[in-house]
């Protein structure tokens, strides 16, 4: 597909109006003195041409020395490289910024207005340039600009779900993989455009291949495809192919990672074991790491999922996750690489919620310094809403990474609009230590999840990535989730409202007749999906799960999940409390007490923690079953409002994006009604209590 047919997402750089900010922009930005030292600086110069060229209608004149014949200019470089920068900023303060941090300052130099973008690293100059262009695109003032920024967490990574040689994507709601590994080392323009999108929101790492990299248990019908599975990317010739791609991402400050299978020493290395305690296995991993870094010096590291969903791991050899993670860490540590060890393990418990904490809490403090334990936001699997994992806040001696899902596996699969940023904010703001026992530095007495992600070795990973669809994400509004992930990974203190304003303004425009309807649709979408797909009281896994058809995890099928719904004639929900499987007791005492009592448990999680009678009255006087009915109907009403609110944009935005989203919202309303009717039938079948308002005939 020609490059000009792909959407520009939030990097549209529409021309700003003829007002005071525009004149200030022209004075300070139409001439740019930009350092030329590193590959990242070429990206800066290119982005300034595109950005300022679009915003002001004319590309900037680029200089290799400070121009003295013009009244004002932009200077981009480190203080060490450029005298004008050193003269204009607090160099000591700049030097103290974390990797990727930057400083934007409007000042004067030799009597001329100068706007400075500076940083201690070239990567920081890239992020700083994008931050400046974001400000210009939103029409914000720059004359008094004096802003320091640095990332809150050191590693901000996208985990692809791609099967690279087949170019298929699990949960790929945006078409085939945009990375064509089979054609490497040949490069496509698409790769640079993708690197731009990631860098513009501060993402600094990308795992190219499937986050669940699997070694097939038996050969497939297509043996050639087995030979080109994602785990084969560690092969020497494949590493050679990856080096040019790494250079593209490097230009934008993004490092390459690979998802590896724990059994690679056997399947790829020809050993007769992958036992992490075997010296031959340790030597194999060390030699493989050397081989990788010889070709990709800034390689980020390995992502590993082991002992889960039938894949090999240390348990196969009588070892534990510390043994498994540390053998890889010792191989990567000399190169400053990291192992991201996924905590998504289950299989030995009837309720997977219990297993993660039981598995990893006893191992706290034993992991190598080069290991990051990557933990999903909740204990189940990216449900529309679930409690925050009890692992957060209770492994103080282990570096943690928060794993979020950018793609909409359980939130409508990019057919339904569902804005994930409010969900992620709920997770990041969760207080893991409300009594302050751990001496945290959260906003309250304790330590919030976001506070656990700020130190060296921590990070945030987002699962699922764009594909070949012209919109990048398969639904134009799903672009907001990719944007929001990057912005929250950079600064988890940002509010949902601030992120929404940024994305909407850059993507559709800042005028209220456009921004307000888009904002309303985004903010209403997640509550709508929760209501019509779960009933809104903490239920989950209500969807079809068969593998034989495309509707996997899309269609409603609550009857498939008795272990998760707990539905019976006497009530609904699962006792994950002291009377049940004890999951609630995995949290610190104050949180456990809150969850353990149905009178104090937050209503939105009530049936996750408690099996309650259908006719039990809740705080507002309604029964459990009537609340479920009401929430399902409310979800449909919310979906209908999304559709009607979007119609207000007819003629105010381009027809292509308006029509695409409008048609998706029509489908969302239809599917919301299907979900509602299915769930209402399910609740009635088990409770025998009809909806008191008799709003919809039962489906027979």
Automatic annotation (TrEMBL):
InterPro entries: A-glucoronidase_C_sf, GH, Glyco_hydro_67_aGlcAse_N, Glyco_hydro_67_C, Glyco_hydro_67_cat, Hex-like_dom2. It comes from the Archaea. Transmembrane segments: none annotated. Keywords: Carbohydrate metabolism, Glycosidase, Hydrolase, Polysaccharide degradation, Xylan degradation. One of its GO terms (molecular function) is hydrolase activity, hydrolyzing O-glycosyl compounds. Residues 138-472 form the Glycosyl hydrolase family 67 catalytic domain. Residues 473-693 form the Glycosyl hydrolase family 67 C-terminal domain. GO terms for biological process: xylan catabolic process. The keyword Transmembrane does not apply. Residues 9-132 form the Alpha glucuronidase N-terminal domain. The keyword Thylakoid does not apply. It holds the Pfam family Glyco_hydro_67C. Belongs to the glycosyl hydrolase 67 family. This is Alpha-glucuronidase family glycosyl hydrolase. It comes from Halobaculum lipolyticum.
